[in-house]
Amino acid sequence: LSTDDEDTFKILIATDIHLGYLEKDAVRGNDTFVTFDEIMKCAKQNEVDFVLLGGDLFHDNKPSRKAMHNCMEALRKYCMGDKPILFEVLSDQAVNFGNSKFPWVNYQDENLNISIPVFSVHGNHDDPTGADGLCALDLLSCAGMLNHFGRSLSVEKLEISPVLLQKGSTQIALYGIGSIPDERLYRMFVNNQVTMLRPREDENSWFNLFVIHQNRSKHGATNYIPEQFLDDFLDLVVWGHEHECKIAPVRNEQQLFYITQPGSSVVTSLSPGEAVKKHIGLLRVKGRKMNLQKIPLHTVRQFLIQDITLMDYPDIFSPEQPNVTHKVQAFCQQKVEEMLEEAEKERLGNPQTPEKPLIRLRVDYSGGFESFNTMRFSQKFVDRVANPKDLLHFTRQREAKDDEGIDFEALLSRPSSEVLQLRVEDLVKEYFQTAEKNMQLSLLTEQGMGKAVQEFVDKEERDAIEELISYQLEKTQRYLRERHVEASEEKIDEEVSVGLRGGKKMLKPEGRTLGVRVGVGCKGPDRERRREGTFNGS
Amino acid sequence: LSTDDEDTFKILIATDIHLGYLEKDAVRGNDTFVTFDEIMKCAKQNEVDFVLLGGDLFHDNKPSRKAMHNCMEALRKYCMGDKPILFEVLSDQAVNFGNSKFPWVNYQDENLNISIPVFSVHGNHDDPTGADGLCALDLLSCAGMLNHFGRSLSVEKLEISPVLLQKGSTQIALYGIGSIPDERLYRMFVNNQVTMLRPREDENSWFNLFVIHQNRSKHGATNYIPEQFLDDFLDLVVWGHEHECKIAPVRNEQQLFYITQPGSSVVTSLSPGEAVKKHIGLLRVKGRKMNLQKIPLHTVRQFLIQDITLMDYPDIFSPEQPNVTHKVQAFCQQKVEEMLEEAEKERLGNPQTPEKPLIRLRVDYSGGFESFNTMRFSQKFVDRVANPKDLLHFTRQREAKDDEGIDFEALLSRPSSEVLQLRVEDLVKEYFQTAEKNMQLSLLTEQGMGKAVQEFVDKEERDAIEELISYQLEKTQRYLRERHVEASEEKIDEEVSVGLRGGKKMLKPEGRTLGVRVGVGCKGPDRERRREGTFNGS
């Protein structure tokens, strides 16, 4: 498989490029753009047949103009030209790309001279939102620069029609699922609602390639996708979303397929997984044989992380020493110097690698030690590391958890890199769980509200909450009209509670409904006005 | 000129399409998209050589995904294909499109099969902003779907290099100026800083076409561009920005050129100018002769406006009558019915025209009459007009103006269509003028702050204010360092005031500086911390 011939597909595999991540940062602002350029240039230099991306091409659901512009620039620069495309699409493209206004693979559009088609599923960062269900990839798709596939419109069942590709004698069935909330996809799998369609002819002659963008590691009982859920007819799974580079294919011994996890091409959190050297893959497929060549990325900013636990050095310092904080500080400084030295050595001979590395020193100061001013400490390295603000991180072994409700203050005061990882839904959930009973709402479900707030915050969908509320209000009004409830307030409240207790599906399209009254303390004129306003459609 | 031959340029002219205007409105949401489709389809049907747009293709500086998607869809649908392009670009395209990453006209890109090139300047709605100086048109440009020209990087002088086009024996020199704040452009003209370069050869053989997007009517002494400012060698000026359709070319008898003002293709304010029937133009140019054919737009929502002054009907009602408000209401209702009838008649035979018209009745109730509840009045027409919320508008002859400061409450409670027209800079200006003296800032200029707030609000540039403040702070610090001011607070304040009073240019890059103290009441530790933080670059 090391020789390239007319029967061998050459596919560049990458994922989680997160264009636009930290784009306002004076030091790191261009990192994602530079690395995307490196990746696409690599695709061109290797004359691949196509590029396969595993989601999160963009970091923000609504990418900045700069991010979108830089992305299009690289795609136009590296993916257009006169190189002939040597493979065919055999499947029904109107099904594969049904969501597009131009439902065919871009290289077959007679108005576009594509040299390297790019195929991508969307990730959780760049997923479709809003009334039109568009995502950033759809803009690229509409511009003819990318082929967005693996898109599903149903939230209850998935039927995945592969893109069928043929080059010489080799046939690839390309399956994909764009990011879906893990719990939902988990439920669909458990309820047997995920079907992967297979080509009618020569079922066994196809190389079955599958791209997924979900949690691979277990984040909770149903908050990930167990590998075993995936069909065993697959040959290779490209797993996006997980940022640690584990690109060498690993065999799942139960299902007998291989999994490659390319990992992100940019460090978005200062955690150990991201310190693993970043790679992309050059996948060769001939017949049903494959070979995946690791290609190191040279433009990725180095990241070194180290943990120290002060208690582990009883010979050097103890909390009782008078000058202990000073000693700890000197010790930390020495550790950082060592990491910087290591980074510098490694960077030698790699002129594309940015000068300043990311460095994180995690200091466990349990056992009576005191932390010190990290700002002042960081000043010493301000010109030598890319992340002076969060260079040092103090941790303590977990204390007993305070259960008396959610502490927003504490949450918001966490360092920014951790706030970013807090999931908005969790905040909403905790809020609903801890809110006073008589403050709760009856017509809005926890899950619906959680989803709306998340879209509002994470995806900048400004109308998400308003849309949810109008939707629920309308449903309730329809229910009341259908039951001919007269306009007395008590009766309406009663009917609504009955509707809720009776488990009428129409009142809770998603998730569990909190069976408590709406509008307690909101009586008379307000109520009246609201009713008049809404029934009259204004 | 009515026959199309190989020497005749056919150019479709349109402007102010405002894609995305009111896109969330349940009734009017798609209006701009539908009309843009009509315009581009018209270009295709007429087999024009190119489309020329006069700015404000987008309503929002950061168009929604839907607006961008719909725009690209229409461009790809109507402007790509096998129709040969029969004209050449003779000028240096690296100059004409110097701001683009692909600085050549899109139809000459060998990877794009363009049938109708679109040329556009930017308007005030879709102008370049932010650190990268990109605008929405640049995204289309980067995607190869549009040719953005008339872009200038200097704020002090303009040197306009025309795009030189040749078809058969006809030569067009196409000049353009993307929108610039009127005052600035006025000043540049007055200071002779606007130069329109002319082709070296056969200067008099060229048809000189110029596109501008500025105020044409006088909004203040220097807040517009007098027609006389424009060079008299021009043949035709396409004037964007003004929404009233005055597309028939009018000769400026002083300069001896013609001006066509196509007007917007969507009604964005309920004012009389917008009630003029909307058109686009089909311009034919042969040699130095031209002909402009008006093409009515069929998809534009009808808009009828009427003014009534209650005092003008002393025979019907007087303020003293007991039932007068009731009578007025009935009278208004009748007027609206008449307008609806007129609209319906006109709409007959135009199946593309949306059903519900825009209707505005302006009622001058000066002279002791009382207004009535417009909400309740509008309810009667909620299913028949597109704008029930602002159907009726009460006016009164201007009262003596209250000078005791700006009344934000009153401003914000105006009907939304008027709030949209309020200029943010005006609010900031009024705020600065009325703020208590001791609350004012000394390092921030009124104009700089006004501009930053405007970008923040109008253009959704979230970093505009922060950037201004960092910029001014840095300048001040540099000034202080250069003068070796010691770190005593009094001395610094003193130096800063000297710097300000002395009129040092570095302290006020734009506009007049308000010579009052900064940070009054902010002493000691706060001051110290701020200084430490910024001098150390964190």
From TrEMBL, chains A, B:
Transmembrane segments: none annotated. GO terms for molecular function: 3'-5'-DNA exonuclease activity; manganese ion binding; single-stranded DNA endodeoxyribonuclease activity. Its cofactor is Mn(2+). It is found in: Chromosome; Nucleus. Residues 290-456 form the Mre11 DNA-binding domain. GO terms for cellular component: Mre11 complex; site of double-strand break. The keyword Iron-sulfur does not apply. Pfam families: Metallophos (PF00149), Mre11_DNA_bind (PF04152). Residues 518-538 are annotated as: Disordered. It comes from the Eukaryota. GO terms for biological process: double-strand break repair via homologous recombination; double-strand break repair via nonhomologous end joining; meiotic DNA double-strand break formation; mitochondrial double-strand break repair via homologous recombination; mitotic G2 DNA damage checkpoint signaling; mitotic intra-S DNA damage checkpoint signaling; telomere maintenance. The active site is at H125. Keywords: Chromosome, DNA damage, DNA repair, Endonuclease, Exonuclease, Hydrolase, Manganese, Meiosis, Metal-binding, Nuclease, Nucleus. Belongs to the MRE11/RAD32 family. This is Double-strand break repair protein MRE11. The lineage of its organism: Eukaryota, Metazoa, Chordata, Craniata, Vertebrata. The gene is mre11a.
